[in-house]
Write a structure and sequence with these properties.
The chain is α/β, with parallel strands linked by helices. It is 43% helix and 17% strand. The chain has an eight-stranded mixed sheet with strand order 8-9-7-10-6-11-12-13, with helices on both faces. It has a five-stranded parallel sheet with strand order 2-1-3-4-5, with helices on both faces. The structure holds adenosine-5'-triphosphate and magnesium ion.
Length: 395
């Protein structure tokens, strides 16, 4: 994503109501601008006009009456120019807030809002900058609260998006930590990697040369460890090597994505300490919510600071609970919803690929990209994005 030149004006506004114009004028003035930075057309008008470098570092846009989907597309288009985007609107539901944030908006404000609140947001780090700080090399585990909910499919797609030059463009390791039943190598039509088991036995002897010699190369930036052991073999002894291996992977790769069985996760506190983020895939039923809540409670005892992002899987509808209901029951907001996409999944399986590559326009691929943005930007655990806003939404 291109960044606006530093001499670009700090704030410009695209409004479509008197209320929007009033607050935008005050915000623009306080940021040193004048009426020339105040334009009509709202969010959709700003997106229609955007081409090349943005007119301002931050665009304050009013959503008006356009549907949320269209608003999200506009935000994504504007973000592609390098500008930050703040959206104002009348909707005060968490769905609108989340959708716009996931589309890349720095913040969404439901009216009434003051210029002070808007300018306070501008001082925060950008919401959609997915480049991690140099010192932070993310290690992301993906697990399911229940079996067969789509955790492995998600891990694979996140890793491919992370490595994709059109995605996050980072050197990425995909690790299939399901030593008994993992199928990443098979599903991606690659040979198994026996070196993975050697690495788990003696992580202290693993270095960059060993990794390059023993990992499968899935692409210029993506390497894979995936190997089956005998079903009767003791898996726990090998899993003890995971934290040590992760620390070597983090020194060699910009990001590490682990496909992690829930049993493995619950067995080892040291493993939890090695993780940066845990993505937990949860089906929309009472069993799923209950399992997720119990898991989160247990994981918190060993790793109170672990960032957990619950994700709703539509693969199994179960009770068809909404993301909002589930978030309330689990005690954490649902970070994304993975739509059921049988046709696109079939298409991807047939070419032993991923939806990110084989069906990049599918709703699933879009959800993966949005989730990746959240992973790069989600605030520390249990810190709502902006408490006052959420409070205002729910009273
Ligand atoms: N959103 C989806 N739409 C359609 N099919 C899906 C979706 N997510 C996963 N699947 C398919 O459902 C099956 C189970 O998915 P997956 O293996 O990723 O689940 P899992 O949670 O890792 O299961 P396990 O508990 O066995 O590890 C696979 O065939 C996968 O391709
Ligand atoms: Mg799996």
């Amino acid at each position: 994503m291109t960044r606006p030149p530093s001499d670009t004006m700090p704030l410009a506004a695209y409004v479509c109501t008197d209320e929007g114009a009033d607050v935008a004028r005050r915000a623009v003035e306080r940021s040193g601008g004048d009426d020339s930075a105040l334009r009509g057309g709202g969010l959709s008008g700003a997106a229609r006009l955007c081409s090349g470098a943005p007119i301002a570092q931050t665009l304050l846009t009013e959503m008006g009456n356009i549907p949320v989907d269209m608003a999200c597309d506009c935000v994504t288009e504007l973000r592609a120019t390098g500008a930050e985007v703040i959206v104002l609107g009348r909707a005060d539901d968490i769905g609108t807030y989340r959708a716009l944030r996931q589309a890349g908006a720095l913040e969404y404000f439901a009216f009434p809002v003051t210029a002070d609140e808007i300018l306070a947001i501008q001082r925060r780090p950008p919401a959609n900058d997915v480049t991690p700080p140099a010192s932070r090399r993310p290690c992301i585990a993906v697990t399911g609260s229940n079996g067969g909910v789509g955790a492995s499919l998600l891990a694979r797609n996140l890793a491919v998006h992370a490595a994709n030059p059109r995605g996050a463009n980072m050197r990425t390791a995909l690790i299939d930590a399901d030593l008994r039943f993992g199928a990443q190598a098979l599903d991606l039509d690659h040979d198994h990697t026996p070196g993975f088991i050697d690495a788990l036995r003696s992580p202290d002897r693993v270095d960059g040369t060993f990794l390059s010699a023993t990992m499968a190369t899935l692409g210029p930036q993506l390497s894979l460890y995936s190997h089956h052991i005998r079903l009767t073999q003791d898996v726990a002894i090998l899993e003890e090597g995971l934290p040590g291996l992760i620390s070597v992977l983090q020194s060699e790769f910009a990001t590490t994505v682990l496909d992690m069985p829930r049993g493995t996760l619950l067995r080892d506190g040291a493993l939890l300490q090695a993780l940066d983020t845990l993505v937990m895939v949860v089906p929309g039923g009472y069993g799923g919510v209950n399992a997720a809540a119990r898991m989160i409670q247990t994981l918190r005892e060993d790793a109170p600071d672990l960032r957990i992002l619950p994700v709703l899987s539509d693969l199994r509808r179960d009770a068809g609970l909404t993301a909002r209901d589930m978030g309330r029951s689990i005690g954490l907001d649902i970070a994304a919803t993975l739509p059921r996409c049988d046709k696109a999944v079939l298409q991807a399986h047939r070419v032993a690929g991923t939806l990110i590559d084989a069906a990049p326009r599918s709703p699933y691929a879009r959800a993966v990209r949005d989730l990746w943005s959240m992973i790069g930007t989600a605030p520390a655990q249990d810190t709502p994005a902006r408490a006052s806003l959420l409070k205002r939404m729910f009273g």
